[in-house]
Write a structure and sequence with these properties.
Blueprint (H helix, E strand, L loop, with lengths): L1 E6 L14 H14 L6 E4 L3 H14 L3 E3 L16 H10 L11 H17 L4 E6 L1 H11 L5 H5 L5 E7 L4 E7 L1
Parallel strand pairs: 1-4, 2-3, 2-4
Antiparallel strand pairs: 1-5, 5-6
Helix pairs in contact: 1-2, 4-5
């Protein structure tokens, strides 16, 4: 099975209802054109507006089956405002059980997205897109490539696309578009 993991296009903010910027809307059209070369059977997206709007042009143009899965929502680092959030986030890549008030640890968030991936691996689908967010995407990539950490997260773009190919022998991860 091939899984295409997409980070949403450029957005106006981090709130769940943040829309894409004008540049993000253009990127979503470019992404739709790019994805047409793959035989995508199913698209599953985070319920956040920026994720939905990222994949909407592709789904609409190609009439692809589409689902929303709350497990693809961005990880909440803390329910409190953390002035030093970047340093706190960095620490969660080292101490994966570190958890701030009202937030998820890296291990908890990784478990959540991996549930989606494991269900897909057990399905009959051969080619699926999931649309998610930078931190959650980086935790999934870290699960398969332990060297993928905080510094690699910082270098992700909006949008970004990774292909994860699962076979009996191995799991291969490649960045295919940014």
């Amino acid at each position: 099975m091939k899984l295409y993991v997409i980070r949403h296009c450029e957005a106006e903010g981090q709130a769940p209802d943040a829309c894409l910027t004008m540049a993000g809307k253009e990127e979503s059209e470019q992404l739709a054109n790019f994805l047409e070369q793959y035989q995508i059977e199913l698209v599953i997206s985070s319920p956040f507006t920026r994720a939905l709007h990222t994949i909407e042009p592709f789904v609409r143009k190609n009439n692809i089956p589409f689902k929303i899965d709350h497990r693809l929502s961005e990880r909440l680092l803390s329910s409190e405002d953390l002035p030093d959030w970047l340093e706190n986030l960095k620490e969660t890549y080292v101490n994966k059980d570190l958890k701030f008030t009202g937030g998820e640890s890296s291990n908890e968030a990784t478990k959540r997205i991996n549930e989606v991936v494991e269900e897909l691996k057990q399905s009959a689908h051969m080619s699926v897109v999931i649309v998610t967010h930078g931190n959650l995407m980086s935790l999934l990539l870290n699960h398969f490539q332990p060297h993928f950490g905080f510094d690699e997260w910082k270098q992700l773009s909006n949008p970004d696309v990774f292909e994860i190919e699962f076979s009996n022998e191995q799991t291969v991860v490649n960045r295919i578009w940014r």
